[in-house]
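Two records follow; treat each independently.
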Amino acid sequence: MRNRTHDPVELRAGAAAPARRPAPGRTPAPEKAAAPRRRRRGRRERLGRFALFAAPGLLAYLAVVLVPIGVATGYSLTDKNPFDPPTQWVGLDNFTGLASDDEFFTALRNTLVITVLVTLVTNAGGLAIALLLDRRGWLYNALRSVFFVPVVLSAVVVSVIWQAILVDDGLLNSMLRQLGMSNPPGWLSDPDLALYTVSWVIAWQGLGFCVVIYLAGLQGIPQELHEAAALDGCGPLARFRHVTWPMLAPAVTINTVMSLIGGFKAYDQVQVLTNGGPGPGTTSTLAFQVVQTAFNGNHVGYASAMAVVMLALVAAASVAALRLLQRREVTF
């Protein structure tokens, strides 16, 4: 018997010979050239989609943040005065002038006091309230909304409300007189109290934000950790110290940084409640001093130098707080 092979006659008479397949591991030349084109086209499409969605936000950030910073930095090196042209280049003279400006250092001291008080009050009060509201029920949901209402209100509206309460013949002093206090404090007229009163109003408005952040942090703690600590014999204080507080580190970081920024840029409350008084510069802050120097004194270049210094201080304080607080954050 002879071996059956593909006889040429059979190939001509029957089906065509099978197509040749490429060797394993090899790609035909057209497909090899098309793959990079597809990858490049995919990258261009992804980049186009990113640009489409990011462009509005980036343009707004450029117009509202980066361009004003650049303009202010440029003005800080000049003697810009819109009513006394021409503008001349003065270099670092504005910054050296700040080093001997008593009003600037008074505003800086007031700003630091407000920032420290606001940061402490909002974090301590926000954590305490969040621990009380970390429960289920319609009442606690309603209370969360009540505490968050001041956050969504304008700072001017909040300041007007508190001004009606805190002026010498306002609601609070009227109540104190009804209770028998013949000479109640001048919350906004006493130079020794006015700065702390302004700090309280700023902290009160920011309290709701801290409450919400701490509530989110509390609800993100696994219940198993509390149960395991209770099985080990830990009481409520020990569970808070060893479980709750370490797990709230990210919330502490967020609230601290936001409170620092809010304290440094305090302006609306000062303008409405005290207008920088009572007395010269008693409650004046850096932001208030920048506005007064630029728009009341028309010294735009000098005010821009103040703004640049203020920006540098806020950035340095925020970065330092982030670096310090992120070290104790717990990840799992």
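The next record belongs to a different protein.
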Amino acid sequence: MAKTNFQYEKRQKELEKKKKAEEKARRKLEAKNNPKPADGSEEAPEDEEGEEGDAADDAAEAGGAPAQPQ
């Protein structure tokens, strides 16, 4: 039976921690450069259409029938 390569597993965990730390630092920097409005309201992303828009997009991409019959 093959022996477990603990050094490989440890290296993978270290790489994952480093990746998470870089992602966190990137988000923090992005938040610093793009502060939220002072009135407390958040701006909606431009590409967000809601649940119904997503269902229609999914059906169209799959080549199926439209989400709502006409």
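Discussion point: The chain has a mean pLDDT of 76. How would you locate this feature using only the token line?
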